[in-house]
């Protein structure tokens, strides 16, 4: 069954991440140190950042954390490992498991970043539930897009990080603008109806990218 294969691959990724805690620690250190540098920068100016700067910096930090977290997903696996997976599971299970794992990882990183961010830089959020829902959509969007790009970069070989940046950022920028817009509405406490169209667009982008990955990854995997 596809669900059983996804569960097995997901459990494998979590076990590997726990064994290689240095990578996870480096990601947490990146988020914490970046937030602290932002705190030092604004404290020198005598206070908290204005809401637009607070909002934009939060998503930029999360974006680069997502790139660092997802980049290693496929590129840390050797061709021999990928051939071994080829004999055991379906390619659809691999791409869906990677997306789900990366989404959970990025959601955890995002919640940690939000906690540190509000601790050091204040909490201007007036509609917390809308902001958290937007954070979930952002984690899913970053995970689905960057997982597919990571798979392409791993197959292409060479400098995978550079290829991820070239392929990923043109897709990520429109999504990032929508996320910033919705979270700015949450910071200002505006009516949720104003964010409805942007949320629907984010959901549609996530579904389109996930569906495209599900359909196209088998051809990429066999290539």
From TrEMBL:
<feature type="transmembrane region" description="Helical">
    <location>
        <begin position="200"/>
        <end position="220"/>
    </location>
</feature>
<keyword id="KW-0812">Transmembrane</keyword>
<feature type="transmembrane region" description="Helical">
    <location>
        <begin position="21"/>
        <end position="44"/>
    </location>
</feature>
<feature type="transmembrane region" description="Helical">
    <location>
        <begin position="56"/>
        <end position="74"/>
    </location>
</feature>
<feature type="transmembrane region" description="Helical">
    <location>
        <begin position="129"/>
        <end position="149"/>
    </location>
</feature>
<dbReference type="InterPro" id="IPR003544">
    <property type="entry name" value="Cyt_c_biogenesis_CcmB"/>
</dbReference>
<feature type="transmembrane region" description="Helical">
    <location>
        <begin position="95"/>
        <end position="117"/>
    </location>
</feature>
<dbReference type="Pfam" id="PF03379">
    <property type="entry name" value="CcmB"/>
</dbReference>
<comment type="similarity">
    <text>Belongs to the CcmB/CycW/HelB family.</text>
</comment>
<feature type="transmembrane region" description="Helical">
    <location>
        <begin position="161"/>
        <end position="180"/>
    </location>
</feature>
<protein>
    <submittedName>
        <fullName>Heme exporter protein B</fullName>
    </submittedName>
</protein>
<keyword id="KW-1133">Transmembrane helix</keyword>
<keyword id="KW-0472">Membrane</keyword>
